[in-house]
From TrEMBL:
<dbReference type="InterPro" id="IPR015947">
    <property type="entry name" value="PUA-like_sf"/>
</dbReference>
<protein>
    <recommendedName>
        <fullName>PUA domain-containing protein</fullName>
    </recommendedName>
</protein>
<dbReference type="InterPro" id="IPR036974">
    <property type="entry name" value="PUA_sf"/>
</dbReference>
<dbReference type="GO" id="GO:0003723">
    <property type="term" value="F:RNA binding"/>
</dbReference>
Length: 175
């Protein structure tokens, strides 16, 4: 059990630097990189930009932001399934199929806290705060509302059946 806690703490820690592969077949504009980092510095309320350099012509290294940055994490929680949470910790974005729970009063582009359901017991479509075991994996901007995530369900609407027979719903119309 001690090993799992050690791994969790390691995953929560921000790496000292991040490595990006630069596509040398396309034009890389260093001024565009500075513009992106400057925009992030305004959002993070930081006066300094992270140091960056090229290890090789196609290998960009960017150091982490200063430790004194306080991120506004919002008041609402998004619960994602364990595999989505693991992917987020490795740098992925959150995709709609991984979202399990979301409050109904969230607004589009609102800052939300993202938690991973550790035990996999969160039921899809949860509206209230999840009280099971969860792990904080980050924060982000809400890009889809609850109605577009859960109201249509996950079952596809079937419009053609292989054996061309009437569905139970269509048959009930004949009664």
């Amino acid at each position: 059990m001690e090993t799992i806690e050690h791994i969790k703490l390691w995953l929560e820690e921000t790496p000292d630097h991040t490595c990006f592969r630069v596509n040398k077949l396309r034009n890389f504009d260093e001024n565009e990189l500075k513009r992106i980092l400057t925009a992030q510095s305004y959002e993070l309320k930081s006066t300094q930009l992270p140091h960056y350099y090229f290890l090789k012509p196609d290998c960009l290294i960017i150091d982490r932001w200063p430790d004194n940055i306080i991120v506004n994490s919002g008041s609402h929680e998004v619960i994602v399934d364990p595999s989505c949470g693991a992917a987020v910790l490795r740098g992925s974005n959150v995709f709609a199929p991984g979202v399990m729970g979301l409050a109904s009063d969230c607004k589009l582009d609102e800052v939300v806290k993202i938690f991973s359901d550790i035990d996999g017991k969160c039921k899809r479509g949860l509206k209230i705060e999840y009280t099971g075991r969860k792990q904080y994996v980050g924060c982000g901007y809400l890009k889809k509302l609850r109605c577009s995530l859960f109201d249509d369900g996950i079952q596809p609407r079937q419009w053609h059946r292989c054996p061309n027979i009437i569905s139970r719903f269509q048959a009930s119309c004949f009664e």
